[in-house]
Amino acid sequence: MCRAHGLRKAGATIAADEGATAHELMAMYGWTRLAMAEVYTKEADKKRLAKAASERLANRM
């Protein structure tokens, strides 16, 4: 069963993973607090940083 919150969360996660900024997410979802958008962008940034680091490590070996 899909609920509105779950769909919004999935959309925000996908958008952040694709490079949307916190302010873009705020505009897309009507959020007024930067902290809400940063929940998604910080997680996406962690994923990108981990991938980049692991790729550098793999290229070194």
UniProtKB/TrEMBL annotation:
Question: What Gene3D superfamilies does this protein's entry cite?
Answer: Intergrase catalytic core
Write out the entry's keywords from A to Z. Answer: DNA recombination
User: This chain belongs to which protein, by name?
Assistant: Phage integrase family protein
The record lists the organism as Sinorhizobium psoraleae
